[in-house]
Structures are given as structure tokens and as C-alpha cells.
Specification:
heterodimer, A: 299 residues, mainly alpha, 13 helices, 0% strand, globular, B: 305 residues
């Protein structure tokens, strides 16, 4: 029940998007009238909203202002690129973030802990587009190989395709890993103070089993939340990274559509991102109940 | 009856937060303790102070006019004339970075403060009034928070058009719900305290309680919130400028220094990419360090938030 309410409430972004695009008319006074007429935003906001809702229900997602194609037709072929990037980045973030967090926690307040914390905080501080550029520069300087700056499909050349995706995924994944490291560290530190961990130590179990089997299992809950949130918010990082690496994904389309003032496309993309955020929140919530039997949702 | 001092008004009778009555250690003691307990945070503080000084004294620190072009010395490497080299138009990178500190700081601080103050007021009223107001406000905040910071700022920046003020506004919008959420939760606890009840009993108005009695006690949370958001605000500004939707020419912005010119000339002149990126990273790193340390010191409840 609570899940249904959650989804219904979060689905509302359409309203906000409409408001955003009525202010869009300010962009250029001369285009204002034309845009307003084209988008039908010269009518009262609530009429537009109802219209838009009706269109949404009937599967009509609006036409691209620039291409004269249904907006969804433009978005759909670009989805796999972004999904692949997001999944790769998340995998890198988890592989990098969880072990660093665990090491940081069990070596609390040692030089290693400080070094790892500075490393992860540095990840949070670097703009991912800059990191992407630096990675390209390093690859060029050290290997002498220039990554292809046009999209290579996996069918064409799988190896090049993978490298082409791994580089940006590394740039984005490093950033997300920083958050995962921090949460893993603090969650693990908290769990390690619990009685049942002391019991496990007292039973004479080896450090590895206590940490990886007993402690980490319970510390994973907040970590999973962060992974879920990060997965949805990766789009933010991908917006610039796809532009740097010139990958034809949804995030780059968003930037282009914004620059072209292609509002129907922007609107659809913003909705899409909101839906992804909701779905990953929902997924994390459901995972909770499965991971921790203490979490129960309304009867 | 006789307990009321002659001439005392209702306002003077109001109880103030107990903490305000206690004597506090001096500023120097507080700073010293902070440095000893949080060396990393202090380092971050030093970075931020250096950045502020750089921004304020940019005119004295810069060796060149940041927007003066020099066709004879384009893409120059580091040298005595151009400490960090020059870009494709012959503009001095060092001077541009020094002046860029001002833009980053103004936009970062401006948007963080604007967003936190607006969000703080919303959170304060929403938390204090409760009921339906709270419910509706929180749902609106949920909606705003459902979008990544950069995406919302991107759309807002495009809608508002390029100018320094508009970039500040665009970045402040996604900060509002985050600020409102944090301040509200802090208000919810404070609202139930006895001194608030006492103020009510004395017949103090709702608005006055909210702003005079509750608001001052959220200052710690507020400081933590703003320092925590400052880093991401600077990052978002850099990203927006990089995409061409941020601070317009002629202001030298770190993000824009990385965009057109840098991407094209990166192979030939890597310093175009490296130095502005270092500047952004260092500024954000400093504010993150400071923010973390302040959070641990001022508001341990927020740890991991």
C-alpha cells in the first residue's frame, strides 16, 4: 500500500516539467510567441497539464521540435548506450567502493584509512568530465593509442567498443565509488560495535569471517540504498561524460535538446529520468524487505 | 506577582534558548580545538580561505588581463611570461584561473546561500506548521528532489538564459528541497522542546516563535548544510559552463576554460585541460573536507547523510 502511494506521489514531476517549460518562453523574446504556439503553452497551465497527462496516458509523447519525429522515436535508439554506461559505471563503483570502504573501516584511523578517505573524497571533488579528459590524455600519453572519438557498435568491433565504454565508466564510476566507500565505512564501523560481533570474536572466529560474513551483511543495507540512489543519479554524471566521450546516449541528447530548445524531447527525457529514479528507489525498497526480515511493509 | 521586574515587556520575559545563556569559549579557542581535532577539516578551511583571498585580490595576483588575447603567443607552455601557459587565443591561463576563482566563489556561495535560505524558510514553516501544509510541501520537495542536481540545474539554466544571476538561480533551485528536508527534520525536534511550549504559553505568536525561537537553533545544521552543498554547487557551475550553459563570456570560468578550447587542443597543449581542472578539484576538495569536519563537529546526527 505504502509503495503505491509512494509511486503515485513521485510520478507527479510532469507538473513541474510543465512549469519549467512555460518559463522556457523567456529564452528569446522573438521566438517566444512561436514556441508558445507550437507547444500550446499559451493556454492556462492546468489545461496544458491535463492535455499532457492525457497524451501520456494514450502513449502520445509529443513530437520533437527539431526533427519532426515523435520524441520517443529519437530517445529509444539511444537508450542502450546510456544503460550500458550506467551499468558499467555502477559495477566499477561497487568493485572500487565496497572493498575500499571495508579496508578503511577495519584499519580505522591508520595512515591507510586516511589515504583511502582522501582518495575517495578526491573522487567526489573532481568533475567527472575533467576526469574523463585526463583519462583520455593519460591513455594517449602512456599507451600512445587514441581512443576512437566516434561511436563503435559492439557488432563492429567488440574490443574497441568495450574500451570506449570502460573509459567513461571509469570516470563516472570513480565518483560514485567515493560515496559507496564513505557509506560502507561508516555503516561497517557502526555494526562492528554491536554485541553480536563481539560474540563472534569471542567464539574465536577468524577476522575475515567476522567481517565479511557477519558484519558486512548487516552493513550492506545503507550501502545498497546509496547504490540505488547513485544508479539513478548517474544520469547527472553521464550528461557531461557522454558529451566528453562523444557517445550517442540519452544524456548527451538531453544536453543537445536543451541547447536546441527542443522542449518535447527535454520534457520526455526529464520524465524518463524521474521514472528511473522512482523505479530504482522502489527496487531498493523491495530489496530491503528481502535482505532484512525486520523491514516489513504495511499489512 | 512581584516577580515581574518593573517595565519588563512580554518580549523581555520570553525565554531564550538555554544554550545562548551559557558562556562560550572564545573564537580563538574554538578554532584551535577544531584544528587539533580535525586536521583534514582545517586543511580544507585553509584551502577555502586561500580561495576567498585569491578571489578578492584577483586584480593584484593576476599577471595578465584575463580576457586580453595575444595572437603571437597562443598555446604557449609554462614560462616566465605565462606561468601556466596560454590558451588558443593567447590568454594567460594563470590569470584566468585567478579571476575564475571569483566566478566560482560568487556562483557557488550565491547559489548555496540562496537555495539554503529559501529551502530553510520552507523547511522551517513546513516543519513548524505541520499538518496539511507540511504534507503538500514535502511532496513538492520530493518531486524536485527526484531529479539529479545537474539535470534540474541544466534545464533551469537553459530556461532562464545565460547570465551570472541566472546561473546562481538555476543552481539554487535543486538545493532548495535538500535544504528544506534537513532544516525541517531539525525543526521537528526543536518544536517539541519545552521552551517553545513556554513561549506559546506566554502568548508569543507563531511567526515569532518560528523565526526568533526555533530558527536560531537550526544555525548549526544550516552551516553544515551550506558547506556540504558548496562543493557540489561549484561542480555544477563548472559542468554548466563546460556545456556552454553557465557563466557567459567575458567572465573567465573554470568550467568554460575546459570546454571548447581545451577539448580541441588537449593533445597539443594538455596544460589547457590540466590546470583549470586542478583548480576546480582543489576548491571542491577543500569545501568537502571542511564540510565533513564541520558536520562531525556541529551536527553528528547528520553523519552519513
Amino acid at each position: 500500500m505504502s509503495v503505491v502511494i509512494f509511486v503515485l506521489l513521485r510520478l507527479a514531476p510532469g507538473n513541474m516539467v510543465d512549469i519549467l517549460f512555460s518559463t522556457g518562453g523567456y529564452v528569446s523574446e522573438s521566438d517566444k510567441q512561436a514556441i508558445m504556439k507550437e507547444l500550446g503553452i499559451d493556454r492556462p497551465v492546468w489545461v496544458q497539464y491535463l492535455d499532457w497527462l492525457r497524451d501520456l496516458m494514450t502513449g502520445n509523447l509529443g513530437k520533437s521540435y527539431r526533427y519532426d519525429l515523435p520524441a520517443w522515436e529519437i530517445i529509444k535508439p539511444l537508450l542502450p548506450v546510456t544503460i550500458e554506461l550506467a551499468v558499467l559505471s555502477t559495477i566499477i563503483a561497487i568493485l572500487l567502493g565496497v572493498p575500499t570502504g571495508v579496508i578503511s573501516a577495519i584499519r580505522q584511523d591508520t595512515a591507510l584509512d586516511y589515504a583511502l578517505r582522501v582518495f575517495s573524497l578526491a573522487g567526489l571533488s573532481m568533475p567527472s568530465f575533467w576526469l574523463g579528459m585526463v583519462i583520455i590524455l593519460m591513455v594517449v600519453a602512456w599507451i600512445g593509442w587514441i581512443p576512437p572519438m566516434t561511436y563503435v557498435s559492439p557488432a563492429e568491433n567488440f574490443k574497441v567498443h568495450l574500451v570506449q565504454f570502460l573509459l567513461p565508466a571509469l570516470a563516472v564510476g570513480y565518483r560514485s565509488s567515493a560515496l559507496i566507500t564513505r557509506i560502507t565505512r561508516s555503516a561497517l564501523l557502526e555494526v562492528m560495535r554491536e554485541d553480536y560481533i563481539r560474540t563472534a570474536w569471542a567464539k574465536g572466529q577468524s577476522g575475515r569471517i567476522v567481517i565479511w560474513r557477519h558484519a558486512l551483511k548487516n552493513a550492506m543495507l545503507p550501502v545498497i540504498t546509496v547504490i540505488g540512489i547513485e544508479f539513478a543519479f548517474l544520469i547527472g554524471g553521464l550528461v557531461v561524460t557522454e558529451t566528453v566521450f562523444n557517445l550517442p546516449g540519452v544524456a548527451r541528447l538531453l544536453v543537445q535538446a536543451v541547447l536546441w530548445r527542443d522542449y518535447p524531447v527535454v520534457q520526455n527525457l526529464v520524465m524518463l529520468i524521474a521514472v528511473v529514479v522512482i523505479l530504482s528507489n522502489l527496487f531498493v525498497d523491495m530489496l530491503y524487505g528481502w535482505l532484512d526480515p525486520r523491514v516489513r511493509y504495511g499489512d | 506577582m512581584a516577580t515581574k521586574p518593573a517595565g519588563a515587556t512580554a518580549a523581555e520575559m520570553e525565554l531564550v534558548a538555554p544554550a545562548a545563556r551559557l558562556r562560550r569559549p572564545g573564537l580563538r579557542t574554538v578554532l584551535w580545538r577544531f584544528c587539533r581535532k580535525k586536521p583534514l577539516g582545517a586543511a580544507g578551511g585553509v584551502v577555502m580561505v586561500v580561495m576567498v583571498l585569491t578571489a578578492v585580490f584577483a586584480n593584484y595576483l593576476a599577471t595578465h588581463d584575463p580576457i586580453a588575447t595575444d595572437a603571437a603567443h597562443t598555446l604557449a607552455r609554462s614560462s616566465a611570461a605565462h606561468w601556466l601557459g596560454s590558451d588558443h587565443l593567447g590568454r594567460d591561463i594563470y590569470s584566468r584561473i585567478v579571476h575564475g576563482a571569483w566566478v566560482s566563489l560568487i556562483v557557488g556561495l550565491g547559489s548555496t546561500l540562496l537555495g539554503s535560505v529559501l529551502g530553510g524558510i520552507i523547511g522551517l514553516l513546513s516543519g513548524y506548521l505541520g499538518g496539511k501544509t507540511d504534507l503538500v510541501t514535502q511532496r513538492i520537495m520530493d518531486i524536485l528532489q527526484g531529479l539529479p542536481l545537474l539535470v534540474l540545474a541544466l534545464v533551469m539554466a537553459a530556461a532562464l538564459g545565460p547570465s551570472i544571476q541566472n546561473v546562481i538561480i538555476a543552481i539554487s533551485i535543486p538545493i532548495i528541497p535538500r535544504a528544506a528536508r534537513v532544516i525541517r527534520s531539525s525543526v521537528l525536534t526543536i518544536r517539541e522542546m519545552q521552551y517553545v511550549e513556554a513561549a506559546r504559553g506566554l502568548g508569543v505568536g507563531h511567526l515569532r516563535i518560528a523565526f526568533r525561537h526555533i530558527l536560531p537553533n537550526t544555525v548549526g545544521t544550516f552551516i553544515v548544510l551550506t558547506t556540504a552543498q558548496l562543493g557540489s554547487a561549484i561542480l555544477v557551475e563548472a559542468a554548466l559552463s563546460f556545456l556552454g550553459l553557465g557563466v557567459p563570456e567575458p567572465y573567465p570560468s573554470w568550467g568554460r576554460m575546459l570546454s571548447v578550447s581545451a577539448a580541441e587542443y588537449a593533445q597539443k597543449a594538455p596544460h589547457l585541460v590540466l590546470f583549470p581542472g586542478f583548480a576546480i578539484s582543489l576548491a571542491v576538495f577543500g569545501s568537502n573536507l571542511l564540510g565533513d569536519a564541520l558536520r562531525d563537529t556541529l551536527d553528528p546526527r547528520l553523519r552519513g547523510a
